[in-house]
Every structure is written in structure tokens, then in C-alpha cells.
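Provenance and format

Records in this collection were gathered into a single text stream. Each protein contributes a sequence line and a C-alpha cell line. The two records reproduced below are adjacent in the stream.
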Amino acid sequence: MAPLEYDDLRKQLREWCDAEHGRQKQIADMLGVSKQLVSMWLSGRRIMSVPEWLKIQSVMKRNKTRRPRKSDNARKKAIGEEQEATRK
């Protein structure tokens, strides 16, 4: 696995986990590892083995669809508030 591929997958995993509370545990359960290990992967304190990397890659492909992030919702709310203020 090339370093860029590893970093890309780690970034995708981080974004997926950050999108909704409890996803670190969810991915840990899917992979049969501890939540702490997932946390260490995300922080860079631990490097995924090739079999773990391949499993994560497979899970990420199956879970491509993402729910809106909290920041997306906050942005939409701010836009709505601005539009409401201009109407007054």
C-alpha cells in the first residue's frame, strides 16, 4: 500500500466517523476490532495492517453514501437565517 493511498483511506475513514456520533464503534464492530484501535488509526498513533486496510477499504466502499455533516446543517441554518433577515 502506497503512503498516499493509506492517507486517503484514513482521511475517508475520519470523515465517515466524524459525520455521525457512534461511528467509530460501528466501524470497529464491522471490522471485529476495538473502538480504541479505530481511534488510534484515526490519530495516527497506530498504522493499519494490510488486512485491516483492505477490510476498511471494503467497508468504506459499501458505505459510500454519507449523511450531511453537522457543519453542513449549520451552514444551511445560517443561510436560512440570512434569508429570513433580508425578508424583514
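Adjacent record:
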Amino acid sequence: MPLDINPVHVRTLQAIARSGSFSRAGETLHLSQPAISHHVRHLEREIGVPLLIRRGRRASPTEAGALLLEHAGRAFKALDEAREAIQRLRGRVAGRVSVGTGATLSIYVLPGLLRRLRVRHPQLELVVVTGNSGEIASAVSRGELDVGIVTLPVPVGRALLISPFYADRLVAIAPPGRQWRRRAPMTAAELAREPVILYERGGTIRRVVDDWFRRGRATPTIAMELGNAEATKKLVGAGLGLSIVSEVAARAEARARALNVIPLRPALHRKIGLIRRRDRAPRPALQAFLAALDRSPRRARGGPNP
């Protein structure tokens, strides 16, 4: 009896396997957690075997799940290529582009670029997955993502091609109020005297910040470690410490005087780069996305304006 496999449910399984959690898959696919769970249950019922191993909040594919994803990945790729070929006959650029990046870039850098790209190529299907630089690089290397926009350096093998995108300026943020209204840049030694809220360990941006403190011969007093810039800003605004974030992430709060933004001395930037498979020529859909990045004023100036 032939299997009645719903491709939408397989896409859901892909997102869970890629992110390692139901909740992050739901955020990526804009689905509720009950909907995600329903997709998995329906798929497992149809296949007849468990497809995921659940350990607390984490989830990973079983042997059967990995096998299904391997074959489904090839099938989805063939369908995408067929759709692109048909659209080329009609003189259009179409197809699916999967992009991996960090939360800050997905919130503050990509929206304007993706909006302009969608206006130019309305047939494009754009999928944005968030994670840390190492996770994104691994997914691109395995062929699960077409391109990654990540903080450099990131460990990659010869299979990946890396090209610079822009330099993202990092700044200190402090609670609102007179105490932290200053024009003079803040040194590592000065910042280390205050409780600081830093990105969680393991990410490339945390290594960039830690290196800045080391070069300034200062050891920060770490009050908290978080993986989310939005939560960090809320905690800083509540007076629980200072932090270092991307300047673009604090721009709205600075304008609203909800936070004080203080430059750093020496200035601190993180290098943002593009990574993709070296052995795969970009399809028209990916070419259109890469061309949009090339046209970005942010790339041309190497600065903060999207």
C-alpha cells in the first residue's frame, strides 16, 4: 500500500531536525507548537515508526527519520530545480532559497533586503533559519541551507566558500538616565567595573567580545549570559547590568532614550560573512539573493545602514 506522505509534514520534520527543538521549528515555520506536534504525529503514524527522539526540550531524528530526510531532501531539491526551470521558460526567477543567520541579523538586517527582493522577484520562496554561526556553517556544509550569513571567523572545511559581507559595529548599552549619558568611549577596564550581561558562551560573537576584554587586559564581572539580544536589552533597561550588542540592535532604544548607547575604545566590530557550498553552482534563485546582498548599501558602506 503506497504511503500518503504530506510534504508539508516532511518540511516540519526538516525544521525540527535542523533546529533541534519543536519551539524553534515553530518560530521558523510560523506555526504553533500544537501544529508542529500534529505534523510529526501524522507523519509517524503514516510511516509506522518513530521519526524523532525526544530528550527534554531537544529533539533529533531516529535512524528512520534521518533516512526519510535524506531521501526527502533530494526530492525537494529536484522539485525546486524543476520549478526554477519552468519559471525560466517564462522569463522569471523563482524557487526556494534557504538562508541561515543569527537572530540579530534576521531582525535588523534582512527584513528590508528581503522586502526589496520580493518586490523584484515575487516568485521567490525565502526561508530564514536562525542559529549560531557554527550551527549555520554545519547546515550549509550538509546542504540543508543554501547560504549562511554569519559572524566570522567560523570553522569551515574546504567544502565551503567564504566571502565578506560587512563589518558590524558593537557598542556598550546602559540603562537610561544621566549616569550613563556620556560622549567619551568606554574602555574594557571601565566596563569590567560594572556587572555585564553577555551573550552565552559558544557563539562566535561571544568569542569576539571576550577577545576585546582580553586585549584590554580586563576581566568582566558577568552578571548573566543570554542568547537573545532582545532579552538582554530589556534586562539592561531594568538596571541589571551593562552589555555589548550590535549598534543596529540598539538604534531604536537609543532614539527613544530607553537605553544609553556608548561607543567602545578601541572600537569593536564583528566581521559578517557569507558562506555557501564551493562545489555547487548557485541556482538562479540563489543568484538573485546573492545579487541583492551585493546591492545592499550595508555591504557597499561596510556600515550600519540597511
